[in-house]
Design goal:
This protein has 181 residues and is of the alpha+beta class. Helices cover 30% and strands 29% of the residues.
Length: 181
């Protein structure tokens, strides 16, 4: 066996041994924005995540793989979401969590619809959010503990999981402004 064949054999053996390690890694194109940007890890990741959301808000999915127009049947067939995956905290309201997102359903005119998509990120200040979304808030909410924006066909709200913390924001919520029949 000559040197080139030995080198090729060693490289082949190394690649064979590393295959299980790389088989667990997801392709970036199949990842949600939450999985790609990891906004819960750092403020810079959170800012990149929110910038991505603003640029792609027209997709109506908050960077996730489930958008507002999806039906319960599609959730079952495409994503395997079963009836027992839902949590129902109160009458006519249900949700499930998937890939860092919370998907909330409400009953509207007798039909259950996906009405809210929500996710968390590393805490940001108002000023950091204003740099991304601008200071033109909806209804002059920039002086309240929630910040609201009307962006295209959607309402966007920033809030905090701690109601006593009125300085930082770590949750983004999106909802359609209207529900089409």
């Amino acid at each position: 066996m000559n040197k080139i064949q030995q080198i090729a054999l060693v490289i082949g053996l190394i690649m064979y041994l590393l295959t299980p390690i790389f088989s667990y890694m997801k392709d970036a194109s199949s990842m949600t924005a939450y999985e790609r940007f990891k906004p819960q890890k750092s403020q810079s990741n959170a800012q990149e995540f929110l910038t991505h959301i603003l640029e792609n808000i027209h997709e109506g999915n908050l960077g996730g793989d489930i958008a507002f127009h999806i039906t319960k049947e599609e959730l079952q067939s495409k994503f395997g979401i079963r009836e027992d995956d839902y949590v129902s905290p109160k009458l006519h309201t249900r949700y499930f969590d998937r890939n860092g997102y919370r998907y909330m359903f409400n009953k509207i005119k007798g039909e259950e619809r996906l009405t809210v998509i929500q996710t968390r990120f590393e805490s940001l200040t108002k000023e950091q959010i204003f740099k991304i979304f601008g200071e033109e808030t909806y209804g002059n909410h920039k002086y309240r503990y929630e910040i609201w924006y009307k962006v295209g066909d959607f309402m966007v709200m920033f809030s905090n999981t701690d109601p006593d913390n009125r300085i930082d924001y770590n949750i983004i919520t999106i909802s359609p402004r209207t529900f089409k029949q």
